[in-house]
Design goal:
Elements: H1 2-12, H2 16-21, H3 26-44, H4 49-57, H5 64-71, H6 73-104, H7 109-137, H8 139-162, H9 166-194, H10 201-211, H11 219-230, H12 236-254
Length: 274
């Protein structure tokens, strides 16, 4: 996100034609940096012993996609409910907000882009801090803090954005995106991994990540845009949209067990419906 925002900001100096012609490719080229980091981490981190146990004991699931929904339907739906909020807030503040500030408020696109640049720098620190904090106090509390920030701040953030004041818009984007979405994003990877045993873990995580964004991911900016158009340019429906999905996440977390101290794979138990 940081590299993409830098690329778009840099390209804006050459005009919209340059962005459409070639500059949109820059973020994809910059992703080479992320590939290098991922490759470095992958070489340095060994697989958990439990995965080797699963392979040696031949207890791998034959059809993990079906087993996840048949054996772990409740926890899968609860995890997806938590994912709704993070993905919605992320897409509202990093995609929709660009359209809203430029088309509805008539501001230069640099205003929102610079706000996203600041939020990306702040989020760069908040994500690992959120993950670290979840190791100490648990996944659920940190996820709940992020959802609570997202919900409570939604109306004040859009009120600040509606002022058209550049500093207030930047503060709003930082609060909503960096402190809301990034706080939740920090513990998500560990949380989604810990709710499944090793035999279906990769598939379970993938289901939560991918299906959990269907009502709140790429469609969120389009839904928010339709809300603004339907309300005559008002932002309150979008703020309410965020509040509703934050409430869904908090409700899901209320019925989700804490996973940070749960050793699901201690004895490689047989599957049970959870």
């Amino acid at each position: 996100m940081l590299l993409a925002t830098v690329a778009v900001n840099a390209a804006s100096a050459f005009g919209d034609e340059a962005l459409a012609a070639w500059a949109w490719r820059l973020p994809f080229l910059f992703s080479v940096v992320l590939v290098a980091v991922g490759f470095f981490v992958r070489l340095r981190v060994s697989e958990p012993p439990v995965f080797e146990q699963v392979i040696e004991s031949d207890t791998r699931s034959k059809v993990p996609f079906i087993e996840v929904f048949r054996t772990y339907p409740k926890i899968t739906l609860l995890a997806m409910g938590t994912r709704f909020c993070e993905s919605l807030v992320f897409n509202i503040y990093n995609a929709f907000i660009l359209t809203y500030t430029t088309i509805v408020l008539g501001l230069p696109k640099d205003v929102a882009l610079n706000g996203l640049l600041i939020a990306s720098v702040v989020g760069f620190a908040i994500i690992p801090l959120g993950g670290r904090l979840s190791d100490r106090i648990g996944r659920r509390p940190v996820l709940a803090i992020g959802a609570l920030i997202s919900g409570v701040s939604a109306f004040p953030v859009f009120a600040a954005i509606d002022t058209g004041s550049t500093p207030l818009i930047w503060i709003g984007i930082v609060v909503g995106w960096a402190f809301g979405a990034c706080t939740m994003f920090g513990p998500e990877a560990a949380f989604f991994a810990e709710i499944y045993p090793a035999r279906v873990r990769y598939t379970g995580m993938s289901i939560v990540y991918q299906l959990g964004v269907l009502p709140s991911g790429a469609v969120a900016p389009a839904v928010a845009t339709a809300m603004v158009e339907g309300s005559g340019g008002a932002s309150w429906p979008v703020a309410l949209y965020v509040v509703v999905f934050a409430a869904i996440a908090l409700l899901a977390l209320a019925f989700t067990p804490e996973t940070s101290r749960l050793n699901r794979d201690a004895a490689l138990p047989a599957p049970t419906r959870t």
